[in-house]
Amino acid sequence: VGYLIAAYLVVAVGFAGYAFVLERRRRALTRRLSLHQG
Amino acid sequence: LEQWIIRSARLSGWLALAALAGWLYMVVAVAPVEKIQGVVQKIFYAHVPCWPPAYLGFVLTAVGGIGYLATRRESWDRLALASAEVGVLFCTLGLITGPLWAKPVWGEWWVWDLRLTSTLILWFIYLAYLFLRAFAFGSDTARTFASIYGILGTALIPFVYLAVDLAQGSTMHPSNPASEGLPAGMQSTVLVGMAAYLLVFYYLASRRLEVAVLEAREEERQWAT
């Protein structure tokens, strides 16, 4: 059962981790661009 | 088209979440426990759906490359970059979940058969593509080279897919397609898994595309000041 849980955790962490990194980059870039436009 | 894809990201994210919830329910409640392998066989539903989005990502990298070489429009290049990055994510997940299934079933984390070795080479090819993009940022020459590299990389995909058949029994992987001949509960669960993973692919690729657009605007701003 440990292998099973590990496999599903890997997928969950992969999806959520990458989505989190993208969202953080997206927000940082949007903020930086809007600061310079304002 | 690029703006339409970016605008649809939020909706695709919610759809992907709903599909993942449905898929998890099916893994737990619908898919039967396999008689020989037991419950560990359910890694199948996390592992096999990794491959269609991985291959799709690499094919779209080539499509973006062809589009860029034909038109010199940067939006094609951004499509190639976003698709490659998300494709590598799915390929990585497939390469991790595979050994987690192989160890309890085959007794080995990894065997150097044709399917596994060619998949690892494919992963290295696209990892190198991402390194190339990261270190040769922004010039037309770099984009042209990356486009050609991305197009050539897809030549390996049919070989990886057919490796099981080419190996003629010397690989432990089941024959293609993996879902053929499965009991109904197993087949529907893996197909729902593939649909859910493809929605996740769309969501992540559209978000990555948006980041690429914002990076291009930021680069333009820095040049202007």
Query: How does the helix and strand content of chain A classify structurally?
Result: mainly alpha
Termini Cα gap of chain A: 55 Å
Order of helices and strands of chain B: HHHHHHHHH
Judged by helices, strands and strand pairing, the structural class of chain B is mainly alpha
Approximate helicity band of chain B: over 70%
Counted by DSSP, the helix tally of chain A is: 1
Shape of chain B: globular
Oligomer: heterodimer
Shape of chain A: rod-shaped
Order of helices and strands of chain A: H
> What is the helical fraction of chain A, as a range of percent?
over 70%
Number of strand segments of chain B: 0
Query: Unreliable stretches of chain A, pLDDT < 50, 5 or more residues?
Result: none
**Average of pLDDT of chain B:** 90
- Rg of chain B over CA atoms, rounded to whole Å, is 19 Å
Kindly report the average pLDDT value of chain A: 93
End-to-end separation of chain B = 30 Å
Count of helical stretches of chain B = 9
Largest interface: A-B, 21 and 30 residues
Largest sheet of chain A: none
Structure in words:
- The complex is a heterodimer of chains A (about 40) and B (about 220).
- The model of chain A has no long low-confidence stretch (mean pLDDT about 95).
- Chain A has one helix and no strands.
- With about 40 residues, chain A is an all-alpha fold.
- Chain B is mainly alpha-helical and about 220 residues long.
- Chain B is built from nine helices and no strands.
- The longest helix of chain B has about 40 residues, at about 185-225.
- Chain B is globular and about 65 Å long.
- In chain B, about 40% of the residues are buried.
- The model of chain B has no long low-confidence stretch (mean pLDDT about 90).
- The interface of A and B includes residues 18, 22, 26 and 29 of A.
